[in-house]
Amino acid sequence: MRFGWSFNLHLDVFVAQVIWVIGASMVVLAGLVYLPRWAIAAAGLIMIAGHNLLDTIHPEHLGAAGWLWNFLHQSGLVQLGPQTRLFVLHPLIPWAGVMAVGYAVGPVFKLDRRTRERLLIAVGLAVTTGFIVLRAANVYGDPAPWSVEDSWFATVLSFLNCEKYPPSLLYLMMTLGPALILLALFERAHGRIAGWITAFGRVPFFFYVLHIVVIHALAVALAWATLGDAGWLFGAPPRQQPAGFGLSLSGIYAVWLLVVLALQPLCRWFAALKQRRDEWWWSYL
After folding, report:
1. What is the DSSP string of the chain?
2. pTM of the model
3. Residues 135 and 202 placed together within one structural domain of the fold
């Protein structure tokens, strides 16, 4: 993934982001699975709801052990060696909590469909409503309070502008609440469109790896075509973007749609390949 983001083989900068935190959360869950399911759910909810209480603690408060706090709670740069750095983008605590709660919710999917849908919608509505109430109160759940802006649209954006790195309680409520509702509603989705979209869900890791490389390659092609120079795109981010480079918002959506359309046949092919193979390691791809 590092090469996909950088197109560079120099091992000087690493970024601990999505793949790292999923893997690390699995390791945490490997220990939690020995607890009763209610205890796993409680541990996950405590991590999700309580980690913002730790926002006043910073790595510099912990001295030589400050790097550990970057991995657990606060995003930041960790110096691994004289010329090697690691930027922790996704700290562990809140995401391990999400995985623990997801594991604890597993038995819900053994219920009959009607009961499962009702439960998912009820919990999703409760979480979403809780987000609106707690966010409106501006008392807890996100390090940046919202404010009334010059226009109603800017005010709405301020209300929704919750911290993702690490994901605050309100960010998780804002995203997981509607996701639970959609999860219930999408169970009734069938037909060609649903089947077309499902191809991505069958090979999420394959799509994730591939789309990063494709989008980066498109950015390189655009830089060469418009600026005559793409050298700045070969290296670890963040990069100093030249003036005048980029697309409008509509252009960004067009590229997104183009990439999705282009990768769908490959995802469908890889999903069929995985289904035909029976070696154990295919399940990790």
Report:
1. -HHHHH----TTEEEE-HHHHHHHHHHHHHHHTTS-HHHHHHHHHHHHHHGGGGTT--GGGGGGGHHHHHHHTS-EEEEEETTEEEEE-S-HHHHHHHHHHHHHTGGGGGS-HHHHHHHHHHHHHHHHHHHHHHHHHTSSS-SS-----SSHHHHHHHHH---BTTBPHHHHHHHHHHHHHHHHHGGG--SHHHHHHHHHHHSHHHHHHHHHHHHHHHHHHHHHHHHS--GGGSSSSS--PPTT-S--HHHHHHHHHHHHHHHHHHHHHHHHHHHH---GGGGG-
2. 0.90
3. no
